[in-house]
């Protein structure tokens, strides 16, 4: 497949979904109960991926809804300063709030996220706020699975997927499973399958594919045999510190190991991975190299305090790939 590189298009990719706030513990190695200070960053998986892509020099756009408040304005300015087109970042007019993610860093291995996502603006994006002419201008549409959790955002995303298909825009589905936004796993499995079957590229962790399949302990072989019966041409399955695999419809299998690093916290790995993986595909690198870019980017971000602000440059990624040993597992 051609992986979406299209210099004739205004955007290399457009992400759809949430742009929110991360409040990351400024004090490490303690539970949230004892954490008194937090540092504010833009967060939300698709926003992080757009920021990561823009840091790597990609032309990125964003479709989403932000609150009409100080947090919403902070997000819009940060993303626009990062070089992302925010013309389709709709400002909510109904009093909905910005989603907040407080992060706890108990140890490098024990991190958790406490989400405040009741009535959040991002899940109120409507179908009439998704514009065909905007989507036409992209090489790829990056869909976050969390945006399928509730209506009207669910229908807005399904419309974006339809428009992308109609206009030959590659669909990248990042499963991005956040249990607290869903009613139950059965519902998640239904909507994940609907979009995964229509996507060109699917990216997720092994656990997230299990959610899509509404099963436990699933195998990569079963996942790819199901999805390759549909539209996907590339399936990426991440296995945490044990590395990741990419499978192609023509039967190739690629594996990348994680790079050794001094881990500060584990969150941010998935978003940095996705942005660097897509950057590599969009700039014409092969799939094996793209996996390395993803792993390298993730190993940089897990060693830093934030997800968005910590997104690396191309030079940092390439330097790390050349010099850093991998974790053998
Ligand atoms: N402790 C770690 N050290 C170095 N790299 C890591 C570590 N954990 C994850 N990674 C890298 O980040 C990638 C994505 O991590 P993973 O945990 O699978 O996804 P997610 O963050 O979406 O749950 C992995 O494939 C790996 O390359
Ligand atoms: O996606 C969110 O709403 C929270 C993120 O902003 C946060 O930085 C995070 O959890 C990132 O983790 P990842 O998805 O593993 O990259």
From TrEMBL:
Record's catalysed reaction(s): 5-dehydro-2-deoxy-D-gluconate + ATP = 6-phospho-5-dehydro-2-deoxy-D-gluconate + ADP + H(+)
Domain of life of the source: Bacteria
InterPro entries, per the entry: Carboh/pur_kinase_PfkB_CS, DKG_kinase_firmi, Myo_inos_IolC, Myo_inos_IolC-like_sf, PfkB_Carbo_kinase, PfkB_dom, Ribokinase-like
Name of the top EC class for this enzyme: transferase
Entry EC no(s): 2.7.1.92
One Gene Ontology biological process: inositol catabolic process
GO MF terms, alphabetically ordered: 5-dehydro-2-deoxygluconokinase activity; ATP binding
Recorded metabolic or biological pathway in which this protein acts: Polyol metabolism; myo-inositol degradation into acetyl-CoA; acetyl-CoA from myo-inositol: step 5/7
Domain Carbohydrate kinase PfkB, first and last residues per copy: 14-313
Keyword terms, alphabetized: ATP-binding, Kinase, Nucleotide-binding, Transferase
PANTHER family registered for this protein in UniProt: 5-DEHYDRO-2-DEOXYGLUCONOKINASE, HEXOKINASE FAMILY MEMBER
NCBIfam families xref list: myo_inos_iolC_N (TIGR04382)
Annotated family: Belongs to the carbohydrate kinase PfkB family.
Role this protein plays: Catalyzes the phosphorylation of 5-dehydro-2-deoxy-D-gluconate (2-deoxy-5-keto-D-gluconate or DKG) to 6-phospho-5-dehydro-2-deoxy-D-gluconate (DKGP).
Name of the featured protein: 5-dehydro-2-deoxygluconokinase
Record gene name: iolC
């Amino acid at each position: 497949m051609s992986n979406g590189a299209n210099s004739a298009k205004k955007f290399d990719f457009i992400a759809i979904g949430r742009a929110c706030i991360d409040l990351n513990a400024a004090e490490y190695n303690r539970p949230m109960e004892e954490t008194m200070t937090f540092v504010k960053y833009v967060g939300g998986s698709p926003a992080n991926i757009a920021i990561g892509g823009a840091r790597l020099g990609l032309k990125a756009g964003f479709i989403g809804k932000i609150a009409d408040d100080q947090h919403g304005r902070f997000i819009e300015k940060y993303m626009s300063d990062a070089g992302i087109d925010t013309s389709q970042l709709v400002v909510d007019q109904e009093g909905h709030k910005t989603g907040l993610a407080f992060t706890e860093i108990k140890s490098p291995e024990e991190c958790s996220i406490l989400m405040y996502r009741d009535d959040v603006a991002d899940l109120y994006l409507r179908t009439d706020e998704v514009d065909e002419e905007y989507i036409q201008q992209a090489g790829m549409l990056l869909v976050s699975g969390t945006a399928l959790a509730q209506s009207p955002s669910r229908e807005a995303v399904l419309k974006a997927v339809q428009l992308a298909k109609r206009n030959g825009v590659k669909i990248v589905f990042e499963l991005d499973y956040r249990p607290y936004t869903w009613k139950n796993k059965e519902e998640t499995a239904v909507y994940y399958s609907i979009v995964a079957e229509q996507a060109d590229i699917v990216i997720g962790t092994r656990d997230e594919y299990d959610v899509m399949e509404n099963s436990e302990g699933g195998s990569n072989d079963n996942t790819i045999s199901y999805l390759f019966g549909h539209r996907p041409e590339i399936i990426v399955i991440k296995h945490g510190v044990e590395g990741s695999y990419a499978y192609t419809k023509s039967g190739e299998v690629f594996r990348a190991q994680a790079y050794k690093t001094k881990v500060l916290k584990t969150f941010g790995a998935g978003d940095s991975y996705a942005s660097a993986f897509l950057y590599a595909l969009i700039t014409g690198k092969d799939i094996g190299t793209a996996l390395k870019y993803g792993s390298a980017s993730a190993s940089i971000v897990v060693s830093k305090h934030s997800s968005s602000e910590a997104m690396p440059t191309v030079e940092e990624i390439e330097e790390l790939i050349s010099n850093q040993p991998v974790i053998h597992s």
